[in-house]
Amino acid sequence: MQERQVRNPIGRRRGIGAEFTVSRRALLAGLAAPLCGSAETPAEQALALRKAAAGDGEKAVLDLLEGRARDSLAAIRRSRTRADADRYRADLLRGKLRESLGLGRLPGPLRVRPRQVGILTRAGYRIEKLTYETLPDVEVPAHVYAPEQSQGRGPAILFYCGHWWEDSKTKPDFQAFCINMARAGFVVMTFDPFGQGERGVSNRDHRRTEMLLTGVSQQGIAEYETRCALAYLAWRRDVDPRRIGFTGASGGGYNTWITAALDDRIAVAVPVVGTSEFYEQISVCRPLDWYNANEHCHFVPNLIRYANNHEFVAMIAPRPLMIIAASQDQSFPVEGVRQVFKYGEEIYAGSRDGEKVSYYEDSTTGHGYQQKKREAAYGWFLKWLMNRGDGAPFPEPPTETEPWDSPELRCFPPGENKPAGPGIAAMAAKLAGATRTPKAKPRLAEVLGVADSGSAAPVRLEDRPVQRVVFRAQDGLSIPAFALQAGGERKGFLLALDDNGKEDLAAEPLVEEARRAGWAVAGVDVRGIGELSTSKPGWVFAVSLLLGENFVWRQALDLVAASRQLPAAPLAVYARGHNAALAATYALAVMQGVRWFVLRDGFLSFRQFLERPESMRASFALHTGERYRKAVYDREIPSEYFVFDVLRHFDLPQLLESLTCPGLIANPIDGDWKRMSEPEARRFVEPRTRLECSAAADAVLASFRALLTA
Predict the structure, then answer these.
(1) Do 384 and 259 have their domain in common?
(2) Residues 472, 357: one domain?
(3) Fewer CB within 10 A of the terminal residue: the chain, N end or C end?
(4) Does pTM surpass 0.85?
(5) Mind listing the pLDDT tens digit for each residue in 485-518?
(6) Are both 416 and 521 inside the same structural domain?
(7) Which residues have CB under 8 Å from 7's CB, separation 6+?
(8) Which residues pair with 122 in a beta bridge?
(9) Based on the structure, what is the number of domains in the chain?
(10) Between vectors from CA 105 to CA 587 and to CA 96, what angle results, nearest 5°?
């Protein structure tokens, strides 16, 4: 972190004496000097300390999170016999997986109302072009590849495209699979997932985090749309609903695992490069920031508390399952896939169904659904859905595909790609509107996924103006902080947090005013902020969600731990910034002995994450070419702020209403990141809490002085 000049928005005012003012430079010097002696000046010492601490701090934060993922997966109860797997599947696994996906929240029964928009006749097969609706105003383009001559009800395959953004269902490798299966007598259906193909391109539609607030995960949307397609496929007169297979690559392979694990209508499953042993996948995606979390389909809430990939195998058994992997696959390490298959051999062999599980590893090509992988899938489907062959790879004949962007293959009119975003966002708003948050004070640990572990030993404070302090979080993380002496007789401790890090608190006029009034100050960097900031927010969000815990709640618990390690005294809390204010809101709900609080520049309600007309409208934009990989679609709310299914349990105003101490909320922001007017903000703020929405710095300071003297 380079030293920079901190602008004081309020300015030095008469009555705040120099003896009570600690500049940022002086603070840094005071923190660095006792710990680092090699640099020439205090500022250089502080810079060296900051750089060293930041690197170590980030590693500690990420290591602890990865360790919790490892330990959680290791603790999963694993079935070792088919009988046990049958009981476990029925009693627990499927129910928990449905809950994590949020399938019960979305509409049903499914009536997709298909509309045929064209037929392409080819040698040995035809392509029926369809559109149908999954949610209101959410239209899906699909292709059905069917044999040239129908012979009554025959076998069918549902093909789910992975994350191939522009070509999607028309990717030549996918066309080749569908063509050859149709020529062999199968009906094959494939469609564009949201954000892809004729519904894209939009990475943003693959991370519709607003649905999390209503208890629906991104994979839940994918699974819901899969069920819509499956309902249509089973309805067709040329399909035998007892002989439906499922396959797909990458995200499509993962969707194959999920659907086959939940739905016994899938008679045969062939997931292709779809996942690995989950800890290996988590570990390998850490340095990649899980591909910047551009899509959230693999981030299933709470999943790794009860299931690894092995449990998907147990849910599918004894139906025929072939796992197809690539020897070189950055996303899904092959050793982990081999482990999953080895477990599958044990489960299937235990009931004499050993021939129904198979593994194929492609050493010629990597991630994708290339020819060798397709040939392995052909042979497996032919054996188990047609009773043809022994399940070995079936050679692919010469196959002619069309350019992925051929106008003939389009289901929507030329140039009219239709985003799913508006319909999904509207459904999120509808579900939220139908949710009545209970009035009772919530049990935060149950909703946010981590229990508050209680007290800790106090830190030792020395008799000097500035001191570096290290608090201990409940999971053992070192929480860096500073302590400033009060300007006179100490009334208590002000626990302060800032989005930009604790150093930016040094010249904060409200902090200076509190010290002048007799409050000692403890400035804290919780995980994710300041010395503990991380360059891997996508990975942190993903792993936290998979664990069923919330990262901002972890930040709040860091703040709570710090409050318990200060010498016994009255407490106050000051938080500046949208992250700091949210963490402090959680912390205030469980802290004891708080005399007053200030929350500044933060959100007031989870519902603001849905009520953001300008940003939401911008998020519906579609892109072409490589631009979609880097485009900023809107000012998104950070993913870690979203809590799964939170609106059925609490909202932020409830937490503040439960407090018995006075407080000030200054310059709150709306979902479009704009400062709210007082009438807008007062909808969320009870009358006894002071509210200051003025842009004038003097007005904020005046409101704070009134709070101090109340």
Answers:
(1) yes
(2) no
(3) C
(4) yes
(5) 998 899 999 999 999 999 989 789 999 999 999 9
(6) no
(7) none
(8) 125
(9) 2
(10) 70
